[in-house]
Design goal:
CATH topology: Transcription Regulator spoIIAA
Number of strands: 3
Helix content: 40-55%
CATH class: Alpha Beta
CATH architecture: 2-Layer Sandwich
Structural class: alpha/beta
Shape: globular
Radius of gyration: 13 Å
Largest sheet: 3 strands, parallel
Strand order of the largest sheet: 1-2-3
CATH superfamily: STAS domain
Mean pLDDT: 92
């Protein structure tokens, strides 16, 4: 799943709800945020909520950050708790190594 543009107070809640609904029907969730122009702290809180949900439901989450998210992570996630991966290729390689098939979520 990919997002671009901005994640801010106006759309962080709907963004998190949508991602969580999609996550309910998969074992792996790759969230590509590399094209975001902006993400506020409320967007980071949404990502934490998504990550917590994935942990509880045993969904493997991988987040691909871009410059906007990397900047927020330096302040909000100094312990690197959000599961980051460097690229879509690296995320897909991790899924393939697991031996589980990929399924597209509409």
């Amino acid at each position: 799943m990919a997002a671009n543009g901005e994640i801010d107070a106006a759309n962080a809640g709907p963004f998190a709800d949508y991602v969580k609904r999609c996550a309910d029907c998969c074992e792996w969730l790759i969230l590509d945020l590399s094209a975001l122009a902006f993400i506020g702290t409320v967007g980071f809180s949404a990502l934490q909520s998504i990550s917590t949900r994935c942990i509880k439901t045993r969904i493997q989450l991988m987040v691909i950050p871009g410059l906007a998210l990397t900047t927020v992570l330096r302040i909000c996630d100094p312990d690197s708790r959000l599961p980051l991966v460097g690229s879509l290729e690296a995320a897909l390689a991790a899924v393939q190594k697991s031996g589980r098939p990929l399924h597209a979520v509409p």
